[in-house]
Amino acid sequence: MIKHIVFLKSKEKDAIVKRNIIEEVAKRLNTLPSIIPEIDSLEVGINFSDRDSAYDLALVTSFKNESDLNTYRFHKDHLKVIEYIKQHKLQTAVVDYNL
Question: Averaged in consecutive runs of 10 residues, what is the pLDDT profile of the chain (99 residues)?
């Protein structure tokens, strides 16, 4: 089993705009399991911590194998979410590992 974890952080200064961007990313990510069958599980969490080092959103997904992860990575609907993330210049950190 593969775990794919992504953290996202917005540089947006306006708290309302920032929250709207993060909520939209979460909404778009949450649609993916119904579209991409290779996703075994997907969990999105929006951060509530006000620490400077905190990221705004965490995505935790699992896949049966690396091939399924790659199918997800290059799926057109996932790429649309990535494009939205890039459009809003969100900082990302990613970890992929085997269980």
Answer: 98 96 98 98 96 96 98 98 98 97
Position 30, amino acid: N
Contact indicator for 63, 38 with CB cutoff of 8 Å: yes
Reported residue count of the chain is 99
- Give the pLDDT of residue 34: 98
Helices and strands (H and E) in the chain: how many: 3, 4
Backbone angles phi, psi at 5, to 5 degrees: -120, 135
List of E strands, 1-99: 2-9, 41-46, 57-63, 91-98
Which domains are seen in the chain, by residue range? Answer: 2-98 (3.30.70.100)
- The reported pTM is 0.94
